[in-house]
Amino acid sequence: GNAPPGVDPEAFSWFQSVDTDCSGYISMKELKQALVNSNWSTFNDETCLLMINMFDKTRSGRIDVYGFSALLRFIQQWKNLFQQYDSNQSGSISFSELQQAFSQMGYNLSPQFSQLLLARYAQRSSNPSIQLDRFIQICMQLQSTTDAFREKDTGLVGNVQLSYEDFLTMVVTRMM
């Protein structure tokens, strides 16, 4: 069949091949099998779940062809940004590239924090680096928690006072 109105024909074609059970929806499992990093590893579960939740308008845990089409545009935008920061075109983001990316995105984060992210999200190696899926995940979580922080930091002073439960509520509603 033809692509529905407002859906890119290429996205529709890919949707049909990714929808392996022919349900008319893409599950997290199907999405994970469809997306790969530059090193041919599949996207991790956490990133796939974040993206499914972002484009799942019915809260069913899956996305329709419209959500999938929007998701592909979203991924392409992140991929373009990723390639912009991957200055040596290695297919992954190194520590210095991550620091530069954060700075250019307007985040004033310490080298220690970037190192912490590398330790948490990079594959274990002598020269750790971040693949596209983890870059998307880190940036989405950073944006979400920054938004939550800014809601509390009404004076834009860079500090807030929170109760422990307020902090947990911020994390749970934004990250899980």
UniProtKB/TrEMBL annotation:
Residue stretches making up the EF-hand domain: 6-41, 73-108
Cellular component GO terms, alphabetical: endoplasmic reticulum; ER to Golgi transport vesicle membrane
InterPro entries reported in the protein's UniProt record: EF-hand-dom_pair (IPR011992), EF_Hand_1_Ca_BS (IPR018247), EF_hand_dom (IPR002048), Peflin/Sorcin_CaBP (IPR051426)
Chief localisation class: membrane
Compartments in which it is found: Cytoplasmic vesicle, COPII-coated vesicle membrane; Endoplasmic reticulum
Is Membrane tagged as a keyword?
Answer: yes
Its membrane topology, per UniProt? Peripheral membrane protein
List, alphabetically, the Pfam families matched: EF-hand_7
GO MF entries: calcium ion binding; calcium-dependent protein binding
A GO biological process of this protein is: COPII vesicle coating
This protein's UniProt keywords: Calcium, Cytoplasm, Cytoplasmic vesicle, Endoplasmic reticulum, Membrane, Metal-binding, Repeat
Protein name stated in the entry: Peflin
Species assigned in the record: Burhinus bistriatus
Upper classification of the source organism reads: Eukaryota, Metazoa, Chordata, Craniata, Vertebrata
